[in-house]
Specification:
Blueprint lengths: L6 E7 L6 H9 L7 E6 L6 H7 L3 E4 L6 H11 L4 E4 L5 E2 L3 H11 L4 E10 L5 E5 L3 H6 L1 H7 L7 E4 H6 L13 H11 L4 E13 L4 H4 L1 H19 L5 H17 L3 H15 L8 H9 L1 H15 L18
Parallel strand pairs: 1-2, 1-4, 2-3, 6-9
Antiparallel strand pairs: 4-8, 5-9, 6-7, 6-8
Helix pairs in contact: 6-8, 8-10, 10-11, 10-12, 11-12, 12-14, 13-14
Length: 325
């Protein structure tokens, strides 16, 4: 008798008692069931564990708050299912997710499958966007795709054995706030095969006070560290231009937050990897970079603030004097 591969839903959670019912209800409404549902309670101070158990989920509780990366690794080690799907406690599954996932699991030709998802405003339910991954780009060069495109775990299906062999999530504090990008780059460079399913199966709820929205500088600093480590760990010469392009994006954000030290480091690395031509497409900016990337970054940021201040709305640094240290 042929054994059908099994699928686990793994949910890292911290003070998520208010959100878990929506997600776990959506898991219960699947046209085909999950084989296991696990919740990692990251030392919550609310009823996260009690709510999870009320819905029949298996639970693991940490004794110290260690973050979602640790929670995901712990849950991946706990389950015995061959396939795993991570989901944020405040997001939601459409009824067709498991059904679509099982088609890929039965075929078994890929280690990672990325599903399309809707992005909705959590307070109003309004549809903000629909995200689909390009199947050809994902399958042909997962490494480039993982560098260039933000991949969140709530849209992924993973072969557990391969995920664990690659090392799972990096729990180094330097990549915290960009750990999802770090993980998918790690999986891609460890040779896992990727595919994309254009069927929408997931709802990502956007919150004004989410970690990424309220910690933009930390996210940018972590992204720089992820890119720096990608170049150093994997000797990614083939992907130097792609890494440099993302570094310049980070430089712009870091400068907007007046984090000149990290912005300077990111710009230097971009130039070292891919030369002056990797700088954004502006003759003036490139010319300034050729003379001094440090000066170019500061002049550009000063001009943006002087001429187009609306581009910096929401940055608290604007309320302070423009510092160029």
């Amino acid at each position: 008798m042929t054994h059908s591969p099994r699928l686990a839903l793994l949910i890292p959670a911290y003070n998520a008692a208010a959100f878990l019912p929506r997600l776990l209800d959506s898991a219960a409404r699947q046209t085909e069931p999950f084989d296991e549902i696990w919740v990692y309670d990251d030392c919550s101070t609310d009823e996260t564990t009690a709510v999870a158990r009320r819905y029949g989920a298996r639970t693991v509780r940490g004794d110290v708050n260690r973050g979602c990366s640790h929670g995901k690794n712990r849950l991946a080690a706990e389950t015995t299912c061959e396939w795993i799907h991570f989901h944020d406690a405040d997001d939601e599954l459409m009824p067709n997710f498991v059904e679509r996932a099982r088609l890929w699991m039965a075929e078994g030709r890929c280690d990672v499958v990325l599903f399309a998802f809707e992005e909705r405003d959590d307070s109003t339910g309004a549809l903000l966007n629909t995200w689909r991954f390009d199947p050809t780009a994902v399958a042909s060069d997962p490494r480039a795709h993982a560098i260039q495109i933000q991949i969140n775990p709530f849209c992924g299906l993973y072969r557990r054995r391969k995920f664990l062999e690659a090392g799972g999530y990096d729990e180094d504090p330097q990549v915290l706030y960009n750990e999802d990008v770090a993980c998918h780059i790690r999986l891609a460079f460890h040779g896992l095969s990727f595919a994309a399913d254009e069927t929408v199966t997931i709802i990502n709820h956007r919150h004004a006070g989410s970690m990424s929205a309220s910690s933009r500088l930390k996210c940018l600093q972590a992204h720089y560290n992820v890119l720096r480590r990608t170049a150093a760990l994997y000797g990614a010469e083939r992907y130097a231009a792609a890494i440099a392009s993302k570094l310049w994006v980070a430089v712009g954000g870091l400068a907007a937050h007046l984090d000149w030290r990290t912005a300077d480091e990111a710009a230097k690395l971009a130039v070292r990897l891919a030369g002056w031509s990797s700088a954004p497409n502006s003759r003036t900016f490139r010319a300034l970079c050729y003379g001094s990337p440090r000066l170019a970054i500061r002049i550009r940021e000063w001009l943006i603030r002087a001429i187009r201040p609306a581009l910096r709305e929401g940055y608290p640094e604007l309320r302070a004097p423009f510092r160029v240290i």
